[in-house]
Amino acid sequence: MAAFNRLTEATYEVHESVKVDTQDNEDHTFCGIMFPIKCKDLLPVDHISIRSVAVRGELGPLTVWVSKEKKQNNNNNNNNAATHVFRLKKSHWHKVYEAVHPPSPHEYKQLLLNEPIILKPGQVRALYIHSTLPNDRAIVYDNAAFYMPRRLIHFGHGHHQNNNNNQNNNNNNNNQDERKPRYEDPMIAIYSGRAHVSTAIFGQEPIWGWGNAWRDHREFVGQLHYGAVYQLWNPDRNVLTKFGPKFNEALFNLKLCQTRWESPISRLPDECIYYILNMCRWDWFQDTPNIMHQKRSQQRAKLKREEMERKRQKQADIEAAARLQDATKQEATTNNNKTDSGPIFDDAMEEEGAQQERAEQEHDDDDDDDDDVHSTQLVGEEGENNNGQEDEEAALRQAWIRRQFDRINVLRALARAQDDEDMEADDNDMDIVF
User: Fold this and answer.
1) What angle do CA 165, 67, 28 make, to 5 degrees?
2) Who's near 242: CB < 8 A, 6+ residues apart?
3) Residue 370 has pLDDT above 80, yes or no
4) What does the pLDDT look like over 11-64, one tens digit per residue?
5) Which one of 160, 215, 375, 402 is at 20 to 30 Å from 427 when CA atoms are compared?
6) DSSP states of 59-96 as a string?
7) pLDDT-wise least confident of 104-118, 232-246, 262-276, 405-419
8) What is the percent of the chain with per-residue pLDDT over 90, rounded to a whole number?
9) Where is there biased composition of kind Basic and acidic residues (predicted)?
């Protein structure tokens, strides 16, 4: 039965085709441009497929390269790293286009790729367009100097130390500006990259023979043609969270109708309802990119509040544990002082007893009534001493019990703090920064 065999992604190769036009200030020309592209994780997209790219300039022998997908393992997800490093070596790149073109300085020339570039949600890959034409007018690109600093994506190694120093000098209030892309829509984001001033592919020697062959803060000028393959709805928690509130509201209403015997939908089993929703696109119930963005913002705000509350509780537990430790030490010091004063108190009692014995020997001739009164007084003093000893033992027991509870509370606080640190480490591993 088809209802039991729901697809997870659309069978259509491309649901939508989008042409990306970047700003063109006619700023610079040279041999090549390299820039990163990110597939945004906003809409329920299974992947996007970049089919072609368009550039202008003197052109000539052109090649288009894409960075190879980085190997992933369970312990390290490269797509979720804080920064993305693209090596400037041919072995780390895959060629997807090669052809010779006549000059086209004013109109974009479309380069239909030999194979599409696939990007999964959250994935970042770099595109490198280069011409071996022996002059500095091959490819038009733009200068991003007026928008610096905003790039935290590194190309190669050893050429971006100054960028790192500039980034360290920026305060946290500029993070939003640094994350601003060159171009973005609900599905992709294009960031600033590097211009190449060498006629050799991935060459490290510029056209004039000295200096650095790569120029930072340069931006792509042209067009991208890509298609989106949407993810299909399924009753899975990881899928449910990617669809909009109106889609989930439609699901809720269908389930309500299923519980009413007078509704024809009540005759349908769950599998049929799930199959119907599986065939519905994410925006068929009036969900829009703006609504999805609001949903994502609310989710991030909720996570931020939970994180702040967790940190506040962690700090409160640590302070409470410190107070309990101080109280325990103070009580232990007090009990030690009482224990140290014990021999002195015993010597005083012995001296007092000796004096009483001498007094009794001196008054052996007293009558029986005086002896009875004297004995009664001694018995009363001994009873008071016994009561004092019992109170002291009870206080020691209570102090010991308090110390045990203090130790338990301290251990609990430390365990909770360790759990929070582990959770923060996991979260930090899921953080992406541009």
Assistant:
1) 65
2) 43, 44, 231
3) no
4) 555 555 566 666 666 668 999 999 999 999 999 999 999 999 999 999 999 999
5) 160
6) -EEEEEEEEPPPP--SS--GGGSSS-EE-SSGGGEEEE
7) 405-419
8) 27
9) 304-317
